Amino acid sequence: MSIETILKIKSPISQAKRTVVQILYAGEFFRDQLNGRLKPFNLTSQQYNVLRILRGQKGNPATLSIIQERMINKNSNTTRLIDKLVDKKLVSRKVDLENRRKLKITITKKGLKTLLNIDPKVDDFESKATYNLTNKELKNLNKLLDKLIF
């Protein structure tokens, strides 16, 4: 099925416009699918992104600015996201004793355990989302997306 059929576009559109619309539609589709898998864990995709960033720190604390620069959605309210994750006891937050304006944020054991439970569901989602593409096609798609973004 084409994007024109899905969105009921009647008039011809340029390939550039079609590409942008297709990418936007795919992004929303994948975000909705991911959110559906995170819902049983009472997490949003942005909160999940923060947890993955902190897990990648391998026990080292991160500052708000480090988390913000690594977020997929750069418009996220990182402070609010951290507050919610602290309330859920998935991350801890401490004032940096050397610079009291900075916060040191780390993932908790509960946060790591939550990610371990989520990982298989996300892996399954990623496999199902890309099952129609060969590994070579996936590499080409990633190369083209890199070319668009960077």
Topology, element by element:
Blueprint lengths: L2 H5 L7 H24 L6 H12 L7 H7 L7 H10 L3 E5 L7 E5 L1 H21 L5 H15 L1
Antiparallel strand pairs: 1-2
Helix pairs in contact: 2-6
Give a verbal description of the structure:
There is one protein chain. The protein has 150 residues and is mainly alpha-helical. It has helices at residues 3-7, 15-38, 45-56, 64-70, 78-87, 109-129, 135-149; strands at 91-95, 103-107. The relative contact order is 0.11. Helix 2 (15-38) packs across helix 6. The protein is built from seven helices and two strands. A two-stranded antiparallel sheet has the order 1-2. It folds into two domains: 1-41, no CATH class; 43-120, Winged helix-like DNA-binding domain superfamily/Winged helix DNA-binding domain (Arc Repressor Mutant, subunit A, Orthogonal Bundle), CATH 1.10.10. It is elongated and about 60 Å long. It starts with a helix and ends with a helix.
Describe the structure in brief.
The protein has helices at 3-7, 15-38, 45-56, 64-70, 78-87, 109-129, 135-149, and strands at 91-95, 103-107. It is mainly alpha-helical and 150 residues long. It has 2 domains: 1-41, no CATH class; 43-120, Winged helix-like DNA-binding domain superfamily/Winged helix DNA-binding domain (Arc Repressor Mutant, subunit A), CATH 1.10.10.
Low-confidence stretches: none
Beta-strand content: 5-15%
Give a short account of the largest sheet: 2 strands, antiparallel
Give the overall shape, derived from the CA principal axes: elongated
pLDDT average, as an integer? 92
**CATH class descriptor name of the largest domain:** Mainly Alpha
- Name the CATH homologous superfamily of the largest domain: Winged helix-like DNA-binding domain superfamily/Winged helix DNA-binding domain
Discrete helix count: 7
Helix and strand content put the structural class at mainly alpha
Tell me what the CATH architecture of the largest domain is.
Orthogonal Bundle
Tell me the count of domains: 2
Radius of gyration: 19 Å
User: CATH topology of the largest domain, anyone?
Assistant: Arc Repressor Mutant, subunit A
Helix content: 55-70%
Q: What is the number of beta strands?
A: 2
Strand order, largest beta sheet: 1-2
